[in-house]
Amino acid sequence: MKSLLAIASLAAAVQASSLDASTCTCGFYDEAQDNLWTDSLIVYFNETGIIPPDLFVPQDYRNRWEQGWNSQFIQGASIDNSWIGDTTTSNWTVVESNNSLSNVTYHPGPQALKLFVSPYDDKHVVVGGAISSQRQDIQYGSFRSYMKGAQNFTGGQSGTALSMTLEYNMTQQISLNIYNTNSNETAWISTLMNHEFPNRYLGVNYTNITDPHFGANCSDPNDQRYGLECTNNVAPTLSGANPMKNPWGDYNNMRIDWTPEVINYWLGNKLSRTVPGAADDGTDRPSVPVPLTLKHWSDGNEYAMGKFPPKNSSTVADVVYIRAFFNTTSMNATQQQAFNARCNKTAACSTENLELRGSTPYPPESKNAWVQADTGYTMRWPAIAVMALCLLLSLSTLSNVILRRIILPSKPKTKESPTESVIGNNNSSEDMSFTSGGTTPLAAHRSPIASGYVTPARTLRNSSAPTSTTFLPGSAAASIREHEGVPPVPRLPNGSIEGSPYASHAGSKLSLFKGADVTGEEIATTPLDLSLPATPFSPSFSQTRNLSFIGRPPTMVTYAPAVIGDTGNEEVVRNGVIAENVKGKTVPVSSSAAPTGEATSGGAKPAPRQKIDYLAGLLAVCSTLVSLTHYMLTFLPAVINVTYAHYDSENWARKTVGWFFFNEIWVVLFFTTSSRFLTTKYLRTGDLGVIAEKTTSRTFRLMIPIIGVIFLEYFLMDVGALDWLQYLPSVSWSVWPYTVVYQNFGAFISETLELIYVIPNAQPAITFNYCTGVLWTIPVQLDGSWTAMLGAIVFYEIKTPYKRFSYYFVVILTHWYARSWGGLFIAGLCMADLDVTYKYRKALYANKFVYYPLLNLVILIALASLGNDLVSNWTGFNLQIVEDGWHIDKLTGLSISQASGAKFPPYYVPKLNSLTFAIAAQLLVEWSTVLQKIISIKVILWLFPHIFTIYLFHGFIFWSVGSAVCVGMSAAGAPYWANMIITFISCYAVLYLSLPIITPVVEALGKSATNTIWSSASEQPAPKRATTYPFPKDLFTSRNVDNPTEGSDTMSSASSFSENMCKGGGMKSMSTTDSSASSFIDRPPTADETTKWPLATEKPVHF
User: Fold this and answer.
1) What is the DSSP letter of 728?
2) Taking the CA atoms of the chain, what radius of gyration do you get in angstroms?
3) Which of 142, 156, 169 minimizes the C-alpha distance to 253?
């Protein structure tokens, strides 16, 4: 109260001897900072009955959106909330007001500028009070204010901010803010620039503000508030200024000094923060003319001012005076020269003279907002024309592909009995057939003829090398046409021909001619004689003959995406059947035996295979539900969490259907299914080569496409694709979306590599730089892969069933208690083991009295696991919090409930209901034929090849396209229900239209590269050949122009070859015009020819 009386008495004394600032024609000199300012703006609100209309204007506005990851409310201002009053006593007097306020909460104070914040409305608009200077030409200056923030209240009130701001736009802004936060512990004063995130190190807490060291840590290089040297760890002191007092009950001096060299923030007489640097040094420090604004506001940012604004009654903050000394852009060069000629520091008025009142005169143009001068930029039409042409060509090519392969796909042409001559007029053909579980007669192939001799098809280096892939809608089918008139040949994921001896390591046989069986291993090392000897001049020389044109009628082959499948080398989904090639036979993964369905010689349709499309459908459904969950968290958070709702229907949806459809638990089925894909073949064969291949390929299969996708997102984020995301919380009322661009490319590389090596349950740092953060599952997938494969080796050796499954139970239980995701992978391994090794389903289906009770049991377990959120929404009881207390606190060794208290665990920590749901849901899908039919419909199966793309890319679509559409629709005044319909359609339309473009790239990156890596790691590389092969190494070095007789053998051979080739007959001409060449083709090479062509007798090479 003494300070209030002192202010009143001081005001009365000064008012009698005030000095008009307009008389200071030589400006105002700040001796302490050695700055000379040309203009001033000084108002003491405790001395005037009105807000001076020639100096300040009360604001009246409503923002369309707010920028900030946590700003759930929209700012507004009303002239009714800015007026001058006296609150010294409870019977306070309104000196000047445009309208009276009802239900106002106040605190005692002298006459001052009163800025109110009204309770927020149902549209989340918070109307506050604000005044802004008439002048908008302020560029650099010293701005001082004597103010007090809003009081803290009880009864549900929350925080507001009283700010002194210099702002042109989002990147040209300086502000000093007093946050009351409705808490003594968290109330603070921030010093921000360019809408920085309100980190606590950029301000001072109320509890420390009266301490001489208040938060100053000058020796800490990480403390970004200080750029000046400090003495004894104490911030620099401003001479002549009063120290800070209790901000709850007293007024305090707040000051900003803004110069081209530095920005200083002063609290009382202490320097709180400094931002050094020249104005033209490339930094984004403010440098353009701005108005000066005082405002009392709230946007609900819980990290700065509290979770929500006042909701029951208005709150008020006070400003006693504002003293601003500054330079202006309204002074032209001539006026500036005249000022410098007649004025100096001694002729200027002192900025510390408290008798100064009023403002210096200013021209009318000072009220105009600054506009960036035209830089004379002209359109670069040549570059635009080139870019447009390239874009047109790209769109034309893409449209052609979509039209021919998706909209109007052509049917492959087939011939019933195609035959073709092998050489010359020889029309004979051989009957070839495969032996792969059943005999399938194969039609003869068409061999392309060029230059009179046979040109065999291009051969691959080895049988498992990757083949070219054609992606069709709804599949990632492999189709290759290496010969004219031959339909696409289905290949297994390792690149081998389906049904061919290449499909397995050994055991399958190929009948090249009647009565002659050759094993697959022999084929890999023995050239095949098709009536054409290998010569140094033929493309087939020293190479294995390619048999890729031999095969059954085409069959669609679909590969499981990497995030849930294996490495893509054995198991496939063929016509809805996940199958693999074992010992020359195509065997479905299903435990029940079923005909393999080999094609008959008459071209009849294959026998029906046992369908397990439901596994593909299950993963497609899970991927869709995960994306829908993230959509709700982004745009309709009240459907999942207890938070602000636009409509009551959102709360009802959370309590009725949200627990089932929008539950994070669906992601766990990716883990159990992944384990099944990884271990099925090993459990069936016991071949450690399978484990070796998957161990080598697994990381590359996952990480190569992921690196491509995150690099694409990195680029798109850097060019501003997510600019609208920071405005979304003020429209959707969701604070869940958050992502920032990487600091630099090195950070991008570091965080990408971290995905490979981080140990769950650690949260990868990249989740903060990636849309929706789904990449937290990648370390879980990799870690779980090693757990599953190592577990498969161990469990395979335990032959006694009861010991085997008892160990399964112990391992799963210990993983759960250790809070490890490995329990889900072991559970998937256990179910695969039951199916593959023990074929339990056949016995289960045969006994209805066992089958139906067990089916009902797993249904109840699955629903109960999902229903944890349902129970929590209706009763408030949460089993996951109780479960959290059961686990061990690592620091103390006690249970968490005893040590630190149980709390809701993070999403990246496994929970008991996740484990029970994964097991029950997987068994339910495998047991229920009704459910299998539902999730095997074509619409769902169409999504299956794209689930990895959907999983990786849906977040970016939601946060870029979705945020722009949602914010734009809100700004246009659309009701939120209509906004959501349009946003939902836009997001999923863009997502699904991008699938045919992105999926082939993702699959090609992962599958092709992985196959190449495994091939190069597991197979002996081809021998190195000389550059001149098949010619001798001395082909050119032995040439002697002066003595042509030297090297005559080489020269004559080369000349003979060149001469005959130049006659236009190629090999055919050689056979008819050169007898030696003809004899060379028709007979084995002689010893002399072997000397001339030493490579002709080397062991054939397999490409």
Assistant:
1) T
2) 40
3) 142
Contacts of 776 (CB under 8 A, 6+ apart): 763, 764, 767, 907, 908
User: Mind giving me the DSSP string for 538-550?
Assistant: STTTTBPPP-TT-
What lies within 8 Å, CB to CB, of 1 at 6+ separation is 108
Unique residue bearing structure tokens 């709150």: 315
> Phi, psi at residue 351, to the nearest 5°?
-70, -15
Residues 22, 41: Cα–Cα separation, whole Å: 10
Task: Tell me if 164 sits within 8 A of 146, measured CB to CB.
Answer: no
DSSP single-letter state for residue 347: G
> HSE (CB half, 13 Å, CA atoms) of 604?
9
3-state secondary structure at position 442: strand
Neighbours of 932 (CB within 10 A): 19
Report the SS3 class of residue 350.
strand
What separation in angstroms does the CA of 128 have from each of 20, 73, 119, 252, 309?
Answer: 32, 12, 9, 22, 10
171: nearest Cα among 203, 201, 196? 196
Contact 764, 751 (CB under 8 A): yes
Determine the Cα–Cα distance for residues 689 and 703; give it in Å rounded to an integer: 22
H or E element at residue 319: strand 315-328
Amino acid identity of 924? L
Give the C-alpha separation, 1006 to 217, whole Å. 50
Alpha-carbon separation of residue 430 from 433, 447, 530, 601 (angstroms): 10, 13, 9, 15
How far, rounded to the nearest angstrom, does the alpha carbon of residue 223 sit from its chain's CA centroid? 31
Residue 147 and residue 741: Cα distance in Å, rounded? 37
pLDDT in tens, 243-291: 778 888 788 899 999 998 889 999 888 888 888 865 444 557 888 999 9
CB neighbour list of residue 216: distance below 8 Å, 6 or more residues apart:
225, 226, 230, 233, 234, 235, 270
pTM equals: 0.72
CA 74 – CA 503 distance, rounded (Å):
64
> Could you tell me the two tokens for 983?
């946003």
For residues 87 and 110, what is the distance between their CA atoms, to the nearest angstrom? 6
The sign one gets for the Cα dihedral 588, 517, 548, 566 is: positive
Helix (H) or strand (E) holding 862: helix 848-866
- pLDDT tens-place string over residues 758-800: 999 888 989 888 888 899 999 999 999 999 999 999 999 999 9
Reduced to 3 states, what is the DSSP secondary structure of residue 430? coil
